[in-house]
Amino acid sequence: MTLSSTHSGDRPDRAGPDRARPGRTSTRRLVGRVVGGVAAAALIAVASYGSISSASTGTDLRSSMTIVAPAAAGGGWDTAAREMQQAQKANGLVNNVQVVNMPGAGGTIALGNLSILDGEPNNLLVGGTGLLAATIQYGTDATLDDVTPIAVVVEEYDVIVVPADSPYETLDDLVAAWRADPAAVPWTGGGSFDQLVVTDLALAAGIDPVDTTYISSDGGGEAIQALLNGTAAAAAGGYPDNIDQIESGRLRALGLVAERPVEGIDIPTAASQGYDISLTNWRMLAAPSGLEDEEVTELTDLVLETVGTPEWQEATERYHWAEQVITGDDLDVFLDEEHARIETLYEEMGL
């Protein structure tokens, strides 16, 4: 896949221990380009690690809890962390709960720090599709095998959009032009997850992702501007990021990336139009490794109680999240399947 910008943005995510990690030359070059940012983020992580350690002493899970957002304030992971904090506070589920931001390297800085808090159950890390993807893309030492996944709680759908004055009236129109000359139909998106969606759509349409021009934008707002100023012809982006532009008539929605129609979203799915893509931007909670079974059960109960509160339900509606709760053995199966799926997409991209 041709990249016409060096920007990379993560929107606000298990590998078996014997599964090989990517070691291709192109991936190593990508890691080299971000190493400066990783080093800077590591300095932030050192300070944040101290905050986690001091805030989460003791083993009474209902006494204190630190929720780690592996990104800066304002993104999807931070929003989920703060809404969870608010729901727990408002309902007295935890006496003292704080959010710590630990940005860097697609969330893997925070993941690495959580992985060394062995046996300390008073910590939860927000993650998701983007975090899982980053461990594959960067070949990180720390993976989801080094922590304790607790639950997937919500998912967010991508939508395929074009400018309102685009000649592409339908998804079939867009795909036909793209298939005829893949490099001549530039795509954009707000982060690495969106690029995975474009890759998945290319494969479903019989297009080689390597031949596609993809303009990586730093966030959903920048991606929308690339569409509106003509830099890109089409985009994949989070439905919450694009809904205002769709409703205002500035963007035309051609397909929702969901397995089935979603109540309240009047956009046909890509699958219903013959393109079998359904990768979602799910959000999950993970705890350190080395926990007792009773602690894992109590953390799972805490998360389930949190997502059942009126405050969390209101946040789900406000941010256009779809409730998707997965725990226990089902979660292990889900994460293994998502790992294999995302790893394949990166291979198809030539990374």
UniProtKB/TrEMBL annotation:
Residues 1-26 are annotated as: Disordered. Keywords: Membrane, Transmembrane, Transmembrane helix. The keyword Transmembrane applies. It holds the Pfam family TctC. The keyword Membrane applies. Signal peptide: none annotated. The chain crosses the membrane at residues 30-52. Residues 8-21 have a biased composition (Basic and acidic residues). SUPFAM superfamilies: Periplasmic binding protein-like II (SSF53850). Belongs to the UPF0065 (bug) family. This is Tripartite tricarboxylate transporter substrate binding protein TctC. It comes from Brevibacterium samyangense. The gene is tctC.
